[in-house]
Amino acid sequence: MKKFGVTLSAVLLMVLSGCASAEEKRKELRQEFNSLYKLTIDGTGTAHSNFTTDASEPLEYHSIASGTYQPLQACDYIGNGKNKWVLKAFVVAPKSLTSQEVSERIDHMRQVWMDQGLEVRNVAGANEMAQIAVDTDSGLTMGYSVSPTNETINISSTCTADLDPDKQ
Predict the structure, then answer these.
(1) How far is CA 124 from CA 23, 58, 63, 143, 145, in A?
(2) Is the pLDDT of residue 92 over 60?
(3) Given pLDDT bands bounded at 50, 70 and 90, which one contains residue 3?
(4) CA–CA separation, 127 and 151 (whole Å)
(5) Which residues contact 33 (CB under 8 A, 6 or more apart)?
(6) Which of 58, 99, 117, 156 has the highest count of CB atoms within 10 angstroms of its CB?
């Protein structure tokens, strides 16, 4: 079984059996987030330095590769000064691609994900842009889009109080 599948299986076993503490669940979700994010970034074949965040910041590839990247964002206020939280990241790389190259990149990423045992779904395909995504049992959604002008990666977890940074 592939490394990603083994990690995902361990996370699910701990969560479903109830033997994982909240801290362990958060740690495992962050590890899975970084593993899937790194797999997708590496799978593009694009130099890491070409990607920037939605805030035009450079990609923090070293943090992702080491598993320490934790892009927490508040996603819902639940009262008493508390929020629900989401792990979320978005990066973009400028491109100059033909329609054929767009199709080839989508097919390549589909294969990268399928090789890890992930089920790939088509999200969109219009105006020379194509988008695919995968969902994990732990609630992560990874999207990959390619158009003639750019390549984007978007990953997020479900919005949950379990990621509260005050509990870490």
Answers:
(1) 36, 27, 30, 11, 9
(2) yes
(3) low
(4) 14
(5) 69, 87, 140, 155, 157
(6) 156
Give dist(CA 59, CA 165) in Å, integer: 22
Where residue 90 falls (left for φ over 0; alpha for ψ -120 to 50; beta otherwise) is beta
Choice between 156 and 11, residue whose per-residue pLDDT is larger = 156
The 10 Å CB-count burial string (b at 16+, else e) for 34-67 is bbbbbbbbebbebebeebeeeeeeebbbeebbeb
For 52-73, the pLDDT digits (tens) are: 998 889 999 999 999 888 888 8
User: Which conformational region is residue 107 in: left (phi greater than 0), alpha (psi within -120 to 50 degrees), or beta?
Assistant: alpha
Q: Token pair for residue 136?
A: 């994990």
Task: Please state the three-class secondary structure of 117-139 as a single string.
Answer: CCCEEEEEEECCEEEEEEECCCC
